[in-house]
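Box S2. Input/output pair 1.
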Amino acid sequence: MFGRIYSAFYLPQSLSRLTQLVEEEVQAWREYPLDEVYYAVFLYSTFLYIRRGRTAKEPVYIALGIKPDGCRKILGFCVFGGR
């Protein structure tokens, strides 16, 4: 499927390594310390198609912080099962 989407072909070992690298980056992002001050924090959700044995729309909850300089930062997200 990856090859059909990106017109590129990778060995299964390469895709496994790529997945591992992405998981490591996401974990480092989740452990990064938050700034002390946010003027506002918004919580919202959206539904995305997620495959866990089958494909289904599931809610993804996202926390967005607005820093004093106006920059927006995603503070975190959670995926909850649709049932």
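Box S3. Input/output pair 2.
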Amino acid sequence: MSLSIRTLLAKVLTFLHEWGGGGGGGDELML
């Protein structure tokens, strides 16, 4: 179960990084 959570967190972090780099700064807070 730990691996699943860590993988999920990694995906979320990557998603936020891509969004933060391409969009503004407050968009991430809306998720």
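Caption for Box S3: Residues 2-22 form the longest helix (21 residues). The two ends are 24 Å apart (CA to CA).
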